[in-house]
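Appendix C: a fully annotated inverse folding record. The material below is reproduced so that readers can follow the format used throughout the book. The structure is listed first as tokens, followed by the designed sequence.
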């Protein structure tokens, strides 16, 4: 599935007042070019250096702050950088939907390597990850837009989130 198609499918499943969080990388480039921005919601984006993985903490923080579902759009590079923060969402039963676009690379870094180093090597591609198997519960995986719609639309309803005791 192309990133543009995936973002359109996600956008069609979002509630109008959703909070969507993304970050640096190809996944965010697709989210900006083919916006998954809800009409009455919020779109939080970190660009520039240091933004990879930002969406995990920001999406979890948005769910903590509002008690409403947030939607995290990240690439696999961002997941490798900060994806273990998923445990915070699980631990506190937060309403966060994580969407990880897997291209087995820090792909925005691969092109400059190819241009500057004559494509002799890369430090920015890696073995295929199996992110789905590392998360608790039902995590849909699809490469076809038709199969993604039911999985995404089933997660539309927000629920109240318990706020952790701050003592």
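Designed amino acids, in order:
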């Amino acid at each position: 599935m192309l990133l543009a198609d995936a973002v359109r499918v996600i956008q069609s499943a979002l509630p109008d007042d959703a909070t969507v969080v993304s970050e640096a990388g190809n996944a965010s480039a697709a989210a900006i070019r083919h916006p998954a921005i809800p009409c009455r919601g919020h779109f939080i984006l970190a660009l520039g250096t240091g933004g990879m993985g930002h969406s995990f903490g920001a999406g979890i923080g948005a769910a903590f702050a509002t008690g409403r579902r947030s939607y995290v759009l990240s690439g696999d590079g961002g997941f490798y950088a900060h994806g273990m923060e998923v445990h915070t969402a699980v631990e506190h039963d937060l309403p966060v939907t994580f969407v990880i676009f897997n291209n087995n690379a820090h792909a925005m870094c691969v092109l400059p390597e190819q241009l500057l180093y004559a494509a002799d090597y890369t430090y920015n591609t890696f073995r295929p990850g199996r992110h789905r198997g590392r998360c608790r519960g039902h995590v849909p995986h699809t490469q076809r837009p038709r199969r993604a719609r039911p999985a995404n639309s089933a997660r539309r309803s927000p629920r109240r989130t318990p706020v952790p005791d701050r003592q």
